[in-house]
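To the wet lab folks,

You asked to see what we're planning to order before we commit. Fair enough. Below is the target structure as tokens, and below that is the sequence we designed to fit it. If anything looks off to you, flag it before the synthesis order goes out.
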């Protein structure tokens, strides 16, 4: 209860710091509160997040029509209320996913709609939102996520098995890697075939790389580690959010999206797009990570098992410690390779960097993990690159003692590919010359571009090289004259 009280206190602070009065952020907060209340594993959470934000994006974009839709453009009058449409879409998807919480969502919807004047615009927005929600729900009705295949434990060294102290079985979501992707055309293009290239468990365990990973986590990730620094302990718990009662890792990344969206002063349409892209990529991060965990030839044991049973791995450079425990009080109940945290974090970072055409953005964020908040020093953390945050997220699992470095490497690499792929192929501007995103191309777009260029605003980076310079003016005018995408 004490841990949950910490989480509730911090979540209120975090939400207050990130919140802004817009319908997308408001319903993202409703979604985060749902995760805190319901809990569960990262895979179904990532699916729920993607569904809610896809429905909101398609609702807003069906009115603005400035980006490619995800499911499609839904018919509506041009004056339909975007706020009403997004709120109704989010509410209907959430009721479908979590019917026991309908009263919560109905109350949130009433609050959203109360601020919108009654009339045809509001009514049209409500009807549009309901249609977008149903379209999203139907698109995922047969996505394979309800399949629960039986899992057969391996009996050889290196094979995953239930871990001390909970010995939970079966493992979480063994079939998730075969479910319908959100943006990936083929999951195999985004994942590695084996840890560090090894596709044979015996050879992997005997390798020098495995021994290096083993000895690193054995030292840094131990409960009473003499080598882990105070800073590494802070990093370990900052990114954890493993406990029910927190917003969990995908929720933490959504909170970060709120911070970035507010900091960059995104419009409602841009905000809907960035949340949709981030959650689409994280939805596929779950598919890719769980494909790696279960559908490749190696379902790798967790450090607590490998270290306690090192006398069976055939590697002279590893030494057994029968009582070794990680800093984290438990190891997640699924195979180690690859890290879900690393994959989710990198997918998010990949979207952010591609969206803003630069990795170099400074931002400050917090965490509601109760262990982090209970540390003597637990300040917010500042990052200067999206990729730095993603890599720290990946490394945190080693300091926590629940992953090998190869898990972090593999997940980070896959996630960055997924994030960039999502932005490059989905929800793209329909006409990049429509600079002011009002659905038409005219001289006002030239004026808006020149204003953004003078202010060195990121939106004027038409070459997407991370800087605003003369080449962007040439690129914009070329686009304006040729109606380019």
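Sequence we intend to order:
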């Amino acid at each position: 209860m004490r841990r949950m009280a910490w989480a509730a206190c911090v979540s209120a602070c975090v939400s207050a710091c990130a919140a802004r009065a817009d319908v997308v952020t408001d319903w993202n907060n409703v979604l985060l509160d749902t995760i805190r209340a319901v809990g569960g594993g990262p895979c179904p959470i990532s699916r729920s997040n993607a569904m809610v934000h896809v429905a909101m994006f398609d609702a807003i974009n069906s009115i603005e029509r400035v980006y490619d839709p995800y499911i499609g453009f839904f018919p509506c009058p041009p004056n339909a209320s975007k706020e009403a449409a997004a709120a109704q879409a989010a509410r209907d998807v959430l009721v479908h996913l979590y019917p026991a919480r309908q009263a919560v969502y109905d109350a949130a919807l009433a609050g959203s709609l109360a601020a919108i004047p009654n009339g045809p615009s509001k009514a049209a927005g409500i009807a549009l939102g309901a249609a977008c929600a149903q379209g999203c729900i139907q698109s995922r009705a047969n996505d394979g996520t309800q399949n629960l295949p039986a899992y057969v434990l391996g009996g050889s060294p290196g094979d995953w098995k239930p871990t001390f102290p909970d010995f939970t079985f079966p493992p979480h979501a063994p079939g998730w890697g075969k479910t319908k992707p959100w943006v990936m055309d083929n999951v195999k293009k985004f994942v590695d075939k084996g840890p560090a290239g090894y596709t044979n468990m015996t050879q992997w365990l005997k390798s020098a790389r495995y021994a290096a990973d083993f000895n690193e986590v054995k030292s840094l990730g131990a409960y009473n580690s003499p080598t882990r620094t105070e800073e590494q302990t802070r990093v370990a718990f900052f990114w954890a959010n493993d406990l029910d009662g927190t917003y969990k890792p995908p929720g933490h990344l959504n909170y970060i999206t709120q911070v970035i969206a507010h900091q960059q002063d995104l419009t409602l349409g841009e905000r809907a797009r960035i949340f949709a892209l981030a959650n689409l990529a994280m939805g596929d991060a779950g598919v890719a990570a769980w494909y790696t965990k279960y559908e490749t030839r190696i379902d790798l044991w967790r450090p607590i098992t490998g270290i306690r049973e090192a006398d069976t791995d055939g590697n002279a450079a590893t030494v057994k410690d029968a009582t070794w425990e990680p800093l984290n009080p438990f190891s997640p109940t699924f195979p180690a390779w690859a890290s879900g945290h690393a994959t989710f974090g990198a997918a998010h970072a990949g979207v952010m960097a591609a969206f803003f055409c630069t990795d170099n953005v400074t931002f400050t964020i917090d965490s509601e993990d109760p262990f982090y908040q209970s540390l003597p020093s637990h300040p917010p953390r500042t990052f200067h690159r999206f990729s730095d945050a993603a890599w720290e997220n990946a490394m945190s699992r080693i300091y926590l003692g629940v992953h090998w470095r190869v898990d972090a490497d593999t997940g980070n690499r896959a996630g960055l590919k997924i994030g960039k792929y999502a932005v490059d192929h989905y929800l793209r501007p329909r006409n990049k010359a429509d600079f002011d995103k009002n659905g038409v191309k005219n001289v006002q777009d030239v004026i808006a571009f020149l204003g953004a260029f003078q202010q060195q605003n990121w939106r004027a980076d038409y070459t997407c090289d991370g800087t605003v310079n003369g080449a962007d003016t040439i690129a914009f005018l070329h686009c304006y004259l040729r109606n380019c995408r």
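Structural context that might help your review: Residues 1-19 have pLDDT under 50 and may be disordered. The radius of gyration is 23 Å.

Thanks,
Computational group
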